[in-house]
Design a protein that fits this description.
The complex is a heterotrimer of chains A (389), B (308) and C (188). Chain B has nine helices and eight strands. With 308 residues, chain B is α/β, with parallel strands linked by helices. The longest helix of chain B is centred in the last third of the chain and has 17 residues. Chain C has a single domain, classed as 3-Layer(aba) Sandwich (Pyruvate-ferredoxin Oxidoreductase, domain 3). Chain C has a six-stranded mixed β-sheet, with helices on both faces. Classes of the chains: A alpha/beta (389), B alpha/beta (308), C alpha/beta (188). Strand 10 of chain A pairs parallel with strand 2 of chain B.
Chain lengths: 389, 308, 188
């Protein structure tokens, strides 16, 4: 898909301007981030990520494996990451559901990885080729139990590139799974993508053991003040033990309430403690806005257009785009809510009400929901009407 | 294990056992029941590690969930105790990214062949460079003895209170059919043969599958009137027949029939290109039809007709 | 004839509709790429991925503007290229009042009342070039020449950076054939 197939023999970093599919831009972002290992199971509308990497990754020294299913895909990227690889998988709703089990394992073992979910109409098989935004809560809460993750939501192919790089950096920094919650519209949209030279691509390394193996006992789950433990990889001689069971600092099972409390609290707090570092928003006309549209993904494009239309009509509308969906940009919403100026929030989304619940719990102001079940973008006009109402 | 020098007239207490460095001594005592076979299997694996000539740092142990899955936690190499059924794809990730490492999966029959069955057959088909030690105790032991895909016909368990009416897997036949390069079955009685099989697996370039029959007196023995663990071992000893050339479709285990043999051996050892995802060059040509398979079939037909 | 670029509020919506194998996706890709990378404009290219995208109908949508394009959807095209009858029947009613309609007149039989339509026998022209497969690039040339929505230079750069080197000349010839025909039609 996308006719730009002149990629054979290209370097890892295709520096320059491209007219590129969102899915391809995501794949190129992963390559730019230093992707070592991809395991995936093709599924519409994420297949182009898989295909692009099948073509590109082996040519630049990485390993591509098409797995038997999504359960295997995510397990494989965790294994590779445990051995030191920057690892990626890409899927859509049905596959995302299957991955929930080992997303929990990634959280518990603190194995960094990036998972792309190109959202389509759902539930179940739903609308394979058409847009949806119904996986927002699943990304946050989908695996069993309490934990925290980070999720980014691109609104353009350029952001598919940029945010995939950021996702790898945050994953390695915090030792968590990081999600790129794309949607079908963004994944299947072709637009200008600028790939910068290598020295402009940031790379956050994983925190590594501070001593050589054998020098002294390495405690693979002993966190520093930042709540993040250094990570030793398979084959380095630290003789680590990782388990999905509740464990102590040594990594050994510790099946009691106190150990569980300590571990689960730390896993959750290590994300909240770094929330401000990973929170990205786009703010449009917020300095004097009275009606604020809170939005993300492809819907943000319609919302931006709607806000501009409203401004043309003299309505003081503004836009807060959650580029980071999780942790949700609570402070931004609270500040607007308490500004005394904002009178109302509008939350359009291609689901039956997910992000709006976040906004609702953060404000006592009215929140006008615009919900569609999926299959098409919400038009700027329909958002405009609610802004103007 | 004792060393040759320890044959003396008096008891000698040693500070350290030769395999201590391969075990996580700080994890003992272990969680396994008296007369469980898993300890012997861990011992065989550890012994194979020490004899493999492969540095300890290059061994990685991955397991799934269950009593057998706990094995990874007792072995002092980089070890990963993953989720139920996912040990094989997790291990695949390590093996593909670090082909210099020797990755062994130790897990149970339920973990590997029920919830993880799809991963198992595809890893074998790809011929991923892994050694699989599949501990078959005919039930889900850790959770109290439920039936699984290896539970013999008519055997009782907490989920087959009237006896199982499902036909169980014949695991060596399955592993062979889906492309494993090395296939063996032993029991915990066959300590030396098992260790040798694991060693062969470690040195095999490709997918090695070793089924080990192991007593589970708590989960399987008790409801099936096998009595103590030793009794299950006695049955193995009485009924096991070593036959490397066995006709694999015929080696189902019929625990109800005391006269039927339990066939063990190193059944398959063939060379196939191991799984190495391409690095920019086209994948190797399709492997030729496996001559070994046809040969084994003819041979085992002969041997089975001889035996009956 | 049409001397001004068809647009609405500074935005040109283009829909190129045909059936599978006609290369409409490549045409849309070339148009968006030329605008976005070589003509200093902003462009978004999308394609129909619905169940209807399999086998039968296929359509490519491009939105071009001098400003960033927020809304990628083509709702009422300013330019509609219809390369088979069903595309004409289905999308003609959506064409904006005063918008530009381009058809392959050997594949589309327009309504009797249709006026101001631009017709090009792209498939036959491509066959004359020796390769029927470049009919879409003939159409691309005609679209560029007739609408002026992007420059000729930008279009050629897009072709050069997209097609395989060994087919570049053929594609360039196809583009030029369409482009020159449009110039002739405009002059007449």
């Amino acid at each position: 898909m996308g006719a730009d197939t002149k990629v054979a023999g290209s370097p890892r970093l295709m520096v320059g301007e491209h007219f590129m599919l969102g899915d391809h831009a995501c794949a190129e972002g992963a390559l730019a981030a230093g992707l070592d290992f991809f395991a995936g199971y093709p599924i519409t509308p994420s297949t182009e990520i898989c295909e692009r990497l099948a073509h590109r990754l082996p040519q630049v020294g990485g390993r591509f494996v098409q797995m038997e299913d999504e359960l295997g895909s995510i397990a494989a990227i965790l294994g590779a990451s445990a051995a030191g690889a920057r690892s990626l998988t890409a899927t859509s709703g049905p596959g995302f559901s299957l991955m929930m089990e080992n997303i929990g394992l990634a959280v518990m073992m603190e194995i960094p990885c990036v998972i792309v979910d190109v959202m389509r109409g759902s539930p179940s098989t739903g609308l394979p080729t058409l847009v949806g935004q119904g996986d927002v809560f699943q990304a946050r809460w989908g695996s069993h139990g309490d934990y925290s993750i980070v999720a980014f939501s691109p609104s353009s192919p350029q952001e598919c590139f940029d945010l995939t790089i950021r996702a790898f950096n945050v994953a390695d920094q915090l030792r968590i799974p990081v999600f790129l919650l794309m949607d079908e519209t963004i994944g299947h949209m072709t637009e200008r993508v600028v790939i910068p030279p290598a020295d402009q691509i940031p790379r956050t390394p994983r925190k590594r053991p501070g001593h050589a193996p054998g020098e002294k006992l390495f405690l693979p789950f002993k966190a520093d003040g930042d709540l993040i433990p250094p990570m030793a990889h398979a084959g380095e001689g630290y003789n680590v033990h990782f388990t999905g069971l509740t464990h102590d600092e040594r990594g050994y099972p510790a099946l009691n309430a106190q150990a569980h409390e300590e571990l689960v609290m730390r896993l959750s707090r290590k994300v909240s403690a770094h929330a401000s570092e990973v929170t990205l928003v786009e703010e449009v006309y917020l300095e004097d806005a009275e009606v604020v549209v809170v939005t993300f993904g492809c819907t943000a494009r319609s919302a931006r257009r709607a806000v501009n239309l409203a401004r043309q009509r003299g309505i003081k509308a503004g836009l807060l785009r959650a580029i980071t969906l999780w942790p949700f940009p609570e402070e931004h919403v609270r500040r607007l809510s308490e500004s005394g100026r904002v009178k109302r929030f509008v939350v359009p989304e291609i689901n039956l009400g997910q992000v709006c619940r976040e906004v609702e719990r953060l404000t006592s102001l009215p929140v006008d929901r615009i919900n569609r079940a999926g299959g098409a973008m919400i038009s700027p006009q329909s958002i405009m009407e609610v802004i103007a109402a | 294990m004792t060393t040759a020098a320890s044959v003396t007239s008096h008891t000698r207490i040693v500070e350290a056992h030769p395999i201590d460095k391969v075990l996580r001594a700080d994890r003992f005592p272990h969680i396994l029941c008296p007369a469980c076979g898993i300890g012997s299997i861990i011992h065989c694996y550890v012994q194979a590690i020490t004899e493999s000539g492969i540095p300890l740092n290059q061994h990685v142990c991955v397991s799934g969930i269950g009593c057998s899955g706990r094995a990874a936690g007792y072995i002092n190499v980089d070890s990963y105790h993953t989720t139920h059924g996912r040990a094989v794809p997790f291990a695949l990730g390590i093996a593909v990214y670090r082909p210099d490492l020797r990755v062994t999966v130790i897990s149970g029959d339920g973990d590997l062949t029920s919830i993880g069955g799809n991963h198992l057959i595809h890893a074998a088909r790809r011929n991923v460079n892994l050694t699989i030690i599949c501990i078959n105790n005919f039930n889900y032991g850790m959770t109290g003895g439920q039936a699984g895909p290896t539970t013999p016909l008519s055997a009782k368990s907490s989920t087959t209170p009237f006896g199982s009416w499902e036909r169980p897997f014949n695991l060596p036949h399955l592993a062979h059919a889906v492309g494993a390069s090395f296939v063996a079955r032993w029991t915990v009685l066959h300590i030396r043969q098992l260790k040798e099989a694991v060693l062969r697996g470690m040195h095999k370039q490709g997918f090695a599958f070793i089924e080990v029959l192991s007593p589970c007196p708590t989960g399987f023995g008790r409801p099936n009137d096998i009595g103590e663990g030793l009794e299950e071992m006695r049955r193995y000893r009485r009924r096991c027949q070593v036959d490397d050339h066995a006709y694999l479709p015929d080696i189902d285990i019929d625990l109800t029939n005391d006269d039927s043999p339990i066939v063990v051996g190193n059944f398959v050892d063939v060379e196939r290109p191991p799984f190495h995802p391409a690095l920019g060059e086209p994948a190797a040509a399709t492997p030729k039809p496996d001559p070994d398979r046809a040969a084994a079939r003819t041979q085992s037909r002969e041997s089975s007709s001889n035996g009956q | 004839m049409a001397s001004k670029v068809p647009m609405t509020n500074g935005v040109t919506q283009v829909r190129i509709a045909g059936f599978g194998g006609q290369g409409v996706i490549l045409t849309g890709m070339l148009l968006g790429k030329a605008a976005s990378l070589y003509d200093g404009k902003e462009a978004v290219f999308t394609q129909s991925y619905g169940p209807e995208a399999r086998g039968g109908a296929s359509s490519a949508d491009v939105v071009i503007s001098s400003e960033p394009v927020d809304d990628p959807l083509v709702t009422n095209p300013d330019i509609l290229v219809a390369l088979f009858q069903e595309a004409y029947v289905r999308f003609r009613p959506l064409l904006r009042e005063g918008g530009m309609l381009i058809v392959d007149d050997e594949l589309v039989h327009a309504d009797a009342g249709e006026t101001g339509m631009h017709a090009i026998p792209a498939t036959r022209m491509a066959e004359a070039l020796g390769r029927r497969i470049v009919a879409n690039v003939v159409v691309f040339g005609y679209l560029v020449g007739m609408s002026g929505v992007i420059s000729r230079d930008a279009a050629i750069k897009a072709i050069e950076s997209t097609v395989k080197p060994k087919t570049y000349q053929l594609n360039l010839d196809a583009f030029s054939a369409g482009y020159e025909r449009a110039r002739g039609d405009r002059a007449s």
